[in-house]
Specification:
mainly alpha; Cytochrome Bc1 Complex, Chain D, domain 2; 58% helix
């Protein structure tokens, strides 16, 4: 027993365990570093682009998202793992950098050039695996393809119209939030929004909705911008509120004006008949004798 106990407490045992632990950590770090480098090379990202993107991020975004993208509690979420597509959407639509913290960040003209946005997207994409900026072939949809528009319309009405309206005109949500209008959103940003789920929107990644289905939804939205409206005036396509307002203010108002016009002309006609009767008969029309 004493011999076994002495062997278990051999002084070199701790150093051996520490050596193997450090070797394992080093191998894991080298593997992850190599994977990141290979992924960057495969996506065509250069070291100069990563460096430029890091400088732009740290000078413009780090106050809310931290110097290394881990996020700042109460100011901005972590960006590790959001992917390049999320950055391209948020910065490309002008939502980021945000002017102030609120229930929802509105879109506005972007303050960075496309090249700067690409650099920042590449840098954030290198911090963790996430959706890449989509290839144009994925979102260049044809609004004249009837089959694509039909499928996209069904998918949009099923998954998106509850918030964005059946025509993509947008709508109100709770707590000061809203679903923005999609009428001016580019096909690229529409695809990225479905891919990344910005703000209140759910994520429709390729496991939830196929790339072709997302492309069909874009085709439907493009068709609503240019296609004829068989119902006549769309009144902004924002639903029964605008339609009810139109009925009560315009239609009902015209009916009241028309009724007044009929009443006025009916009175004049009656007076004219009375005057003609009195002139031809010499009797007072009000005399009942």
């Amino acid at each position: 027993m004493n011999t076994l106990s002495a062997r278990r407490r051999h002084p070199l045992a701790a150093f051996v365990v520490l050596f193997f632990a450090l070797a394992f950590i080093g191998a894991a770090y080298a593997t992850l570093g190599s994977s990141t480098a290979n992924a960057s090379a495969a996506s065509g990202v250069t070291q100069d682009q990563l460096t430029a993107g890091q400088k732009l991020f740290q000078s413009s975004c780090s106050s809310c998202h931290n110097m290394n993208g881990q996020g700042v509690q109460g100011s901005g979420p972590s960006l590790i793992g959001v992917g390049a597509a999320a950055v391209d959407f948020q910065v490309g639509t002008g939502r980021m950098p945000a002017m102030q913290i609120g229930p929802q960040v509105p879109s506005k003209p972007p303050i960075f050039s496309p090249e700067q946005i690409a650099d920042m997207a590449a840098y954030i994409g290198s911090l963790g695996a996430g959706p890449d900026i989509p290839d144009p072939s994925l979102y260049n949809a044809d609004p004249n393809n009837a089959a694509s528009v039909s499928n996209g319309g069904v998918l949009f009405r099923t998954n998106c119209s509850q918030c964005h309206n059946v025509a993509g005109a947008g709508g109100a949500l709770t707590d000061g939030k809203y679903a923005p209008s999609l009428r001016d959103t580019s096909p690229k940003h529409l695809y990225e929004a479905m891919l990344t789920g910005p703000q209140n929107m759910p994520v429709f990644n390729d496991n939830v909705m196929s790339p072709q289905d997302k492309k069909d939804i874009i085709a439907y939205l493009l068709q609503t911008r240019t296609g004829a409206n068989p119902g006549g005036l769309d009144l902004g396509s924002i639903g029964p509120v605008s339609e009810g307002l139109f009925v009560w203010t315009i239609v009902l108002g015209l009916l009241i004006v028309f009724a007044c016009w009929i009443g006025a002309h009916t009175t004049k006609a009656s007076r004219a008949r009375v005057a003609h009767f009195e002139a031809t008969t010499g009797k007072d029309a009000t005399d009942n004798d």
